[in-house]
Write a structure and sequence with these properties.
Blueprint (H helix, E strand, L loop, with lengths): L1 H5 L7 E4 L11 H13 L1 H12 L12 H13 L3 H5 L5 E6 L7 H8 L5 E3 L6 H4 L1 H14 L3
Parallel strand pairs: 1-2, 2-3
Helix pairs in contact: 2-3, 2-4
Length: 149
């Protein structure tokens, strides 16, 4: 979403790994608002719970958190919409997603990218490149070689 919004129209090709053009309305904004409240109350505990749901417990130390930037990112999830920019893409797109992603579930990926336009991994949680780096790299390299220069 960030890339679509910030770099619209400047692509030879686009790779989306568990990405989307807008988060809400696919996920109720009340879920994001609850995460924002948790972040304000207990940043370390909130992020630990989030990382567990992603499939990456203990992803980072709580001392490394930049809470204002995380809060800003949650605002983006609630309010940004890059659907129109995605629809205007005139380049090849590779979409990689995980069937067990609880953050960007399969139904959301299909709604955003189209049912037949996704290369699926059966697992990987919301950290597909962390869990299956070779699989992701293989697909990205194959895609990069197929994009006209």
């Amino acid at each position: 979403m960030w890339l679509l919004k910030q770099r619209e129209g400047r692509f030879s090709g686009l790779v989306s790994i568990q990405g989307f053009d807008r988060f809400c309305p696919h996920v109720p904004d009340s879920r994001v608002a609850a995460l924002k409240r948790g972040l304000a109350r207990d940043p370390g505990g909130t992020l630990k719970a989030f990382w567990r749901s992603c499939g990456a417990p203990d992803f980072a130390d709580a001392a490394a958190l930049n809470v204002p930037r995380l809060d800003e990112g949650l605002d983006w999830l609630m309010h940004w919409d890059a659907e129109a920019a995605k629809k205007r893409l005139q380049c090849p797109v590779l979409t990689l997603a995980s069937k067990d992603d609880l953050i960007v579930p399969p139904a959301m990926s299909q709604a955003v990218w189209g049912k037949n336009n996704i290369v699926w991994s059966p697992d990987g949680g919301h950290v597909l490149p962390l869990r299956h780096p070779d699989w992701c790299a293989r697909h990205v390299v194959e895609f990069a070689h197929s994009v006209p220069s």
